[in-house]
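Pipeline run #58 for the internal structure catalog. This entry was flagged by the ingest filter as a single-chain record with no existing model, so it goes straight to prediction. Upstream metadata was stripped on purpose; only the residue string is passed forward. Reviewer on rotation: M.T. Logging verbosity set to normal.
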Amino acid sequence: MDAKTGFFYLFSVVLLFAAFRVITARNPVHAVLNLILAFSQAAGIWLLLKAEFLGITLVLVYLGAVMVLFLFVVMMLDIRMDTVRQGFWKHFPLAALVGAIIAFEMALVLMGGFRGMDEPKAVATVLDAAGQVVPYSNTKALGKLLYTQYLYPVEIAAVILLVAMIAAIALTLRKRKDSKVIEAAEQVYARPAQRMRLVKMAPTRKPAQAQEEKA
């Protein structure tokens, strides 16, 4: 067994253990940290498979942005585990059935998709128009494939993500009744006469009676 195979098994074992701890950890913060570990091991496997672009994207997008955001959200929320565990066994049969169906479908896709296929061989060098040797870049090849053969699926996915982002903003953008936020335009166009108002009120005591009391 060479070093590449050893690292593959090492990353795979750590990935499976981290994924198992994600669903079994009682503390949500620990679950997010194990998910970060799982993504890092998956990025290492992508690098071993010579998919540098996917590995770096997984590290930059998920580890550098999404999972850090998840970690801050989980740490800021006051999650009560006693309320989360309520009704667990009530919904467990349905969840187990859905999980078994998903695992069965993934097994069918993996067994039917990779059977009888040879290992892909990356082209070492490419010749340009002048006949000079240009280093092969799988990132460039992936970009050409996405924006030529799979252009319409990429555009459809972009539109779906845009609609989801607009819907999330529209659902959360509502005025709260207990908010004390003041509009900036009202502060700019405010006048001194609007800040203070003089009100005439009748005196509670007569002036003569007040002077006699002082004497």
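catalog note: The beta strands are 125-127, 133-135.
catalog note: Residues 2 and 8 are 10 Å apart (CA to CA).
status: ready for reviewer M.T.
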